[in-house]
């Protein structure tokens, strides 16, 4: 059963439209003919080389940018600008420096539920702050927090508004490895517990393997496409520290690395036979007789 929260339908992004004086008549296609559905409660990670348009797509989903072609539907309705049904977690957390942790989160809550009494707003904010492990730090200001704590506030703020869709653009990439690991675990636990639908960009293959139910592979730009969608074969109750004990982990990791190293650039010259951008190949890794996993589309 699929229940798409987001449906991306044939979107493209082009800059410098033909005939536009500043472009000298040339136009660059960043990506085109992208189709993707994100189902309710699903965690989707997007991987692709720098410049293929990942952030542009996320901004389009957030309603902060518009596609040059195609449409995006949120629960079946065409998306029209930013909305509190979608929360964005940026790499640079973008907290209000003059507000406390509680103030930052409560501000988002009160924008979402404008008529809620102050006590309810504070209660919701406190619950979100506790969920990311920041209970006790409610009255600190962003300048008094570490990078990891600031990012936690960003996550608390996004979750506190109970969005239909959580959009994350490399949210953990600026953190040290230890903090990144802890936050990945927290994010996964919270999203699973609450059935949160997530669309996340990452450069980190291991992060995608740990977090994602499906991994979307984008080819290099210009003219980027969705090359394939890989189903994560690892058990749903996987632990981050135990990933490397699972033989399926290595097969999946190799598959993703091979894509980034070779296939992401080869795709443009030689797309696979029968490639249909509306239905990119779904890759499942299956056990072969030798016990190894191999890709089946
Ligand atoms: N206003 C603009 N005019 C022309 N080109 C632009 C504009 N904004 C972005 N681009 C181009 O669009 C492409 C996609 O940018 P985007 O930030 O979406 O890439 P990305 O996949 O998120 O990359 P990274 O992994 O480095 O974050 C880039 O090549 C960028 O130069
Ligand atoms: Mg980006």
Automatic annotation (TrEMBL):
CDD domains: ABC_NrtD_SsuB_transporters (cd03293). SUPFAM superfamilies: P-loop containing nucleoside triphosphate hydrolases (SSF52540). GO terms for molecular function: ATP binding; ATP hydrolysis activity; nitrate transmembrane transporter activity. It is found in: Cell membrane. It is a peripheral membrane protein. InterPro entries: AAA+_ATPase, ABC_transporter-like_ATP-bd, ABC_transporter-like_CS, ABC_transporter_ATP-bind, NO3_transporter_ATP-bd-like, P-loop_NTPase. Residues 6-245 form the ABC transporter domain. GO terms for cellular component: plasma membrane. The keyword Signal does not apply. Signal peptide: none annotated. The keyword Nucleotide-binding applies. Keywords: ATP-binding, Cell membrane, Membrane, Nucleotide-binding, Transport. PANTHER family: NITRATE ABC TRANSPORTER ATP-BINDING PROTEIN (PTHR42788:SF7), TAURINE IMPORT ATP-BINDING PROTEIN-RELATED (PTHR42788). Belongs to the ABC transporter superfamily. This is Nitrate/sulfonate/bicarbonate ABC transporter ATP-binding protein. The gene is nrtC.
């Amino acid at each position: 059963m699929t229940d798409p929260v987001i449906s991306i339908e044939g979107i493209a992004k082009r800059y410098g439209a033909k005939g536009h004086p500043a472009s000298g008549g040339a136009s660059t296609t960043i990506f085109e003919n992208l189709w993707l559905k994100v189902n309710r409660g699903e965690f989707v990670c997007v991987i692709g080389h720098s410049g293929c348009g990942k952030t542009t797509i996320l901004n389009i989903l957030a309603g902060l940018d518009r596609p040059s072609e195609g449409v995006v539907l949120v629960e079946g309705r065409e998306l029209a600008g930013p909305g509190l049904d979608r929360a964005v977690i940026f790499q640079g957390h973008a907290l209000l420096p003059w507000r406390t942790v509680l103030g930052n989160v409560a501000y988002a809550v009160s924008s979402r539920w404008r008529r809620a009494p102050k006590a309810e707003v504070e209660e919701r904010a406190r619950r979100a702050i506790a969920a990311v492990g920041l209970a006790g730090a409610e009255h600190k200001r962003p300048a008094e927090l570490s990078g990891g704590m600031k990012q936690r506030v960003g996550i608390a703020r996004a979750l506190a508004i109970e969005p239909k869709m959580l959009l994350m653009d490399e949210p953990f990439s600026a953190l040290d490895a230890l903090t990144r690991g802890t936050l990945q675990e927290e994010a996964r636990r919270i999203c699973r517990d609450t059935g949160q639908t997530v669309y996340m960009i990452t450069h980190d293959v291991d992060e995608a393997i740990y977090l994602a139910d499906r991994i979307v592979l984008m080819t290099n730009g210009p003219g980027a496409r969705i090359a394939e969608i890989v189903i994560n074969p690892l058990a749903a109750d996987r632990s981050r520290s135990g990933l490397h004990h699972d033989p399926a982990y290595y097969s999946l990791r190799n598959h993703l690395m091979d894509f980034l190293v070779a296939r992401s650039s080869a795709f443009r010259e030689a797309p696979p036979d029968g490639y249909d951008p509306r239905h990119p190949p779904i890759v499942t890794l299956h056990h072969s007789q030798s016990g190894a996993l191999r890709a089946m589309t």
